[in-house]
Write a structure and sequence with these properties.
This protein is α/β, with parallel strands linked by helices. 23% of the residues lie in helices and 28% in strands. The chain has a domain at 7-120 and 185-232: 3-Layer(aba) Sandwich (Rossmann fold). The chain is built from 5 helices and 11 strands, in the order βαβαβαβαβββββββα. Helix 1 (27-40) packs across helix 5 and helix 3 (82-95) packs parallel to helix 4. The structure holds zinc ion.
Length: 236
């Protein structure tokens, strides 16, 4: 990518201390940003934002300087204002900002607005001991799957299909949970704008990432998120 400016990524979560410090000493957004900066090799500049900041961390000015927004939320979806979701929606749909929703962000307003869906799940389970999650690469030629082969996460929360979203343009990864036999479309992507708005952005949803498990330190997950940033920024 010679001559191209670094991709500016904003990684959002609810507040710096939401995830257990023993698992995520720098919160979830810190772990994700660090992984992207490591693997991005100078082509990605990831920074953090959270709900406690001015304009809930996503002011008009901040979004105007963001190429890809990554959103992790869980306990404070209800506090995210409609005006916040609206700013994110317009950045994606009107000027092509990329959007990545992680795990429980399936119920966040920005995801529901951007992708236009309820985000309802068929079921979920936070088990003790935790579920094992087997992830299969369904679209090996998709840029988000580059360098990734089938892999397993030893501990995760389970989500079951069906997942109420518009039909994705690609199911890049699918999960299987052997404890209960459930499946979930775990890594899916959309080109937004229904083909009528060429400036609309791309979106990716990635399921793993419950806050009590070290999922965002997993080497495969880090590669997937880096690939997703490149794809959502329309660099691949
Ligand atoms: Zn969770």
């Amino acid at each position: 990518m010679p001559g191209q400016k670094p991709i500016r990524v904003l990684v959002w979560d609810e507040k710096p201390s939401h995830a257990p410090k023993s698992v995520y000493p720098e919160s979830i957004n810190g772990a994700v940003a660090k992984g992207l900066n490591e693997l991005g090799d100078g082509h990605i500049k990831a920074v953090m934002a959270n709900i406690e900041e001015l304009e809930q961390g996503v002011s008009e000015h901040t979004l105007s300087q963001t190429d890809v927004l990554i959103w992790w939320g869980h306990a404070r979806h209800g506090e995210v204002q409609e005006s916040t979701a609206s700013r994110v929606y317009h950045a994606v749909h009107d000027r092509g900002m990329g959007f990545i929703a992680l795990h429980s962000a399936h119920y966040s307003k920005p995801f529901q607005w951007v992708v236009k869906c309820s985000g309802n799940l068929g079921g979920w389970r936070e088990a003790t001991p935790a579920d094992t999650e087997e992830i299969t690469v369904c679209a090996p030629r998709h840029p988000i799957a580059k360098g990734v082969e089938d892999f397993m996460l030893d501990q995760e929360e389970m989500y079951a299909a069906p997942f109420d979203t518009p039909a994705p343009h690609a199911v890049v990864f699918q999960s299987f949970f052997p404890m209960g036999g459930e499946y979930f479309p775990t890594g899916i992507c959309w080109q937004l704008g229904e083909g009528k708005h060429p400036h609309a952005g791309r979106a990716f949803y990635f399921r793993p990432g419950h806050e009590t498990y070290p999922t965002y330190f997993d080497p495969n997950v880090k590669v997937i998120l880096k690939n997703a940033v490149l794809w959502c920024a329309k660099r691949v």
